[in-house]
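Quick start: load a record and inspect it. Here is Cellulose binding domain-containing protein:
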Amino acid sequence: MGSALGRRRAQSTSRAATVFRAVVFFSLVAAVVFVTRPLWHSKASSSGSRSGDATGPAAPLLSVRYRPGAQPSDSASFSQPWMQLVNTAQQPVVLDEVTLRYYFKQEGTRGYAFNCIYAEVGCSHVAEKIVALPSPVGDADHYLQVSFTADAGSLAPKANSGAIELQLYRPDKAAMKESADFSFNGADAKAYRENEHITAYVNGRLAWGTEPAGAAAPASSAPVPLDAAAGVVFDDFHYTGPDDPALNQHGWIVRTADGGPGVLDTWKASGVSFPVMSGAKGGQVLNLRATTDGTKSGTTQAEIQSRDIPFFTGTYAARIHFNDQPTHGVNGDPINEDFYMISPDNPKYSEIDAEYEPNGGWGAPGPRLDTTTWYSADAGDRITQKNMISLNGWHTLVITAAKGVVTYSMDGSVLYTTTGKYYPREPMSANFNTWFVNTLHLGGDRQWDMQVNWLYYNSAHTMTLSQVQHTVDGLYAGGANYVNTIAKKH
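Running the structure step on this input writes:
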């Protein structure tokens, strides 16, 4: 009996010890969980999240690959930082939460400019802006920030964004000395390689790379405020020159072909440039220059034409600087400064013209703006109005084509409307040109210039000037040089 009691006491003591050990164990587990909860909770809540909570770590892990797109040269006025973004995480990366920074040292006092030559996600979904570092260092005082729109989508785990081919350039054509830039690496000229001197951020938090000293400013990841509707084209004409690869990629051709109008067979690429101009939003303009000495051999005309973009009905808008005086030489030439849309010459031929003639032409005086809608080029079947006004300086021209009516407006005031058969019947190209009706012997050389600040087109809506301007302002604010939601990705 004593032995049985002893066994029961031993068992009771053993159970008490077991319970005590269990209590201690679970208390320790609870303590560990409580202490580490902020870490695993933050990771769990940020996984797959679009939150910009600055206190939590960026869940996705990224890497940036780089190579220079052009042969490195310290005498060139441009550099081409080409990049690829790689998702090295186990979950998708939402691209409009990502920003990239390419760091450089600015030469001279004039600002740099930029454009997108090509992007696998579409240049229309890539935005850029140049930002000054709060504390410059020897090899970096600015960076080119790259962000993406919501329509850029996301990167799957282990996926690569494909090429993002960017161009950084000096509009004044001076040398850049890219070898002195923090993010440049000339050894990567033939293949994409990881570059830790290009930084990547997710929701403003560093996710890849090493910042130069003085670079720790917040990285904005806000989506670009684009006009999200399908059927939009915008271009602010940020290009290095008529041979810029981005110009052709964005659907523009600099005319050198023979033919008219004006002085036949005198179209020259040398008449097209993209200078900095005071009073232009964003700084740069498309400049179209026509020159003459009164002879055909001494005459050049300039034109830029769109390619493979089906401009049709909707809203066309352009901010244009017209000139009543030549930039150089005596006045008096019958010069035309034009913005027009035209289709191939066929049974559905369509053409919409806004043709400014500061000195008149075609036997009629100036200054005047001819607003014309065509039905047939072969038959000369058109309807037009001669608006007897001077347009010297900056003006915004808006043309709408909707529900059988074409309306021409200047600076918000309606000038002319056409209806009936005088209405577009098929897609057209969009074009700007400067040309002479004929040559005159006025003495000496003359030079005429027309500038275009930006072009905006919306195929889905008819818009007022204020609506257009609000949209264009948003595009500039977001760093969008070029948008095309009509054609295939560029």
